[in-house]
Amino acid sequence: NKVDFTAFSNFGASVGTLSTLDLTAPVITIDSSTTAETSITVYLRLDEVGTAWCRAVRQGFATPSALEILETGFRASYTSSSVAVVITSYNADGEPLQLGTDYDVYCYAEDDLCQGCRSPTGSSAAQVLSTKTQVR
Fold first, then answer.
1. Using one digit for the tens of pLDDT, what is the confidence trace for 20-42?
2. Distance CA 133, CA 136 (A)
3. ∠ at Cα 118 (117, 124), nearest 5°?
């Protein structure tokens, strides 16, 4: 069944432009980190519009899951340039960071949802592990 170009063009015009869902998680690039007496600031970029969360754990402790990173609430929305995620406590209960303690910082990112999308695409466990940044 051949379809001529005119029929093809008319069909395309009647359907219009369609967008497919983005099923890939944002890639996180850690640019740098800084520390102060009561905080750790992580500067990062994503390869697409999204939101990044970061969490500090004591050095040598287990890598946190995505939910454990999300529960602390330390996040920043990314659109086009490096953003800062400021971490002010060790856990979701608000236990303050301790001076002189070595921490590993892990980050997680999700796509910002498109209009009408039902679930975001987030970082895998391997992607979270790849963001490990040691700070003191």
1. 666 788 999 999 999 998 899 99
2. 10
3. 100
